[in-house]
Design goal:
There is one protein chain. Helix content is 76%, strand content 0%. By secondary structure, it is mainly α. The protein has a domain of 52 residues. Helix 2 runs parallel beside helix 3.
Length: 184
Amino acid sequence: MIEALFEASVEEEKVLARKSELKKMGVPALKELILSNGLESGSASGMVETMLAHEAKRRKELRAFEAKVGEVLAQKKEQLDKKSLSVLKEMCASKGLPVGGGKEDKVERLLEEAQRDGEIDKVISTMMRDARKSELASIEKPDLLKLCENLGVNPFMKDIMVERILGYEEECEEPVTKKPRKSY
């Protein structure tokens, strides 16, 4: 409890220092910073608050990511604990890790290697992408189109449109043909 309060006070001091730093920036530099982060500009004080809120959101996302790292490592450790000593030894050897020590040593080496080589980050990124994908899939089409416009994303991808047209044409009973020109 005391640690949490201490961390909160340290975090608050950092935010106040960052707020002071942002206020000292010139309006053009602050506006450039805001736009480079994909945020909307406004008054100087509004941009400072917007940037602080954005940074707070990023810190929260980072904490969530770190918590997921712990979860994925625990799952991976559970999977490795179920393996036999000889299988763990082979896994260590295939990754160029020392093969000596007991089962726990091998498991720890494999977990550290999974973190170093980015395996854990890939798993978490896939999980987060899947969650975001289902979140976006649940949004109504007009709202999704508005989001695309706000982000500057082209919602009409040529490859996808071509595939959909071909799929539609395959489903039609009669082939789609050109209409004859009318001469005037």
